[in-house]
Amino acid sequence: MNAAADAKGPNLFVVGAAKSGTTSLWTHLDAHPDIFMSHPKEPHFFSRATVPRDQIVKDPVAYAELFVGGASHRYRGDASPSYLWDAESPARIREAAPQARIIICLRDPVERAYANYWGHVRAGLDKRAFSQVVHEELADDEVDLASVPVPYVTRGFYDEQVARYLETFGDATIVLLFDEFVADVRGAMRSVFEWLGLDPAPAETLDSAPVYPFLAPRNAAVGALLRVPGARRVGNAVLRGPLRARIDRVVFNTEKPRLDPEIRRLLREVYAPHDARLRELLGRSLPWDGRE
Description:
By secondary structure, the chain is α/β, with parallel strands linked by helices. It is built from 13 helices and 7 strands. Helix 7 (158-169) packs parallel to helix 13. The termini are far apart.
C-alpha cells in the first residue's frame, strides 16, 4: 500500500453504503474545483471486494496512478462502498492516509437491501427470489460479506460499520442519510463542502437529479446489453436530458416490484437492534424510524 500512502494520494473517502447515493455524491464532489475524484469511481483498493468488474484496482502502483491528475487539488477522493462493510478497511485507509476525511452514506436498510438485490438481478449476478435470498442469509451462521452474490441483509448492519470509522477517524467522519440527501441535494453538498473547509458556492449549480435512478430492463436483450462492460457509462455520457428520459421510459421499468410485506416486517425486526445502536452513535433519530 505504500504506493498510495504519499502526499498526493487519496485523502477523501466515500465509504458507502451501496445504493445509498454514493454515485451522486461522487459526481457532486468531483464537480468542486478543489476536489479530484478517482475514475473509476470504485477501485475497492482497501477492501476484499471481488465482484468481477472492470473498475477494481488492487495493484498499488495502478491505484496511485488514479490520483496523479489530482496533484494540485486539496482533496483526492475514492468512493468505494465496500469500505463500509469490510472490517479491515478503516485501519488500512488510516495507515495509508492518516489525515483522511471519511464520508458515510446510509439508507433505510430495508430499502437498501432490496435495491442492492435488484442491482444484482439487473447485472445477471442473482436469479433467486428476494424472499429466498433473505431466508437463506438469515439461516447462515457464518455470512461472508465479500461473497457473490452479496449478503444483502448483513451489509445493512450499519451500527457495527459506522462504529469502526468513528473509532478510527473520529471527527474526521461525517454521516449523510440518503432521505435527507435526496430531499435537498444542494443543501447537503453545501454542508459537505463547508465541512471540508471548501467554498460551498459550487453546490448552488449542481444538477440535483439522481445519477442512477432505478432502471430494470423490460426484456432480455436490454439486460444483456447492460451487462456489457462500460455500456451503461457510455449511455450515461452520450444521452442526457429529455431524450435520455424518453428512452428510459421505453426500454426500462422505472419502479421496483413491491416488496413482500411479510419480508419487509421480518427485515424491520432484524434491523431493529442495529438501528437502535446507530441512533446512539449518531445522537439522532433516523429518517426510516416508524416505517413499516
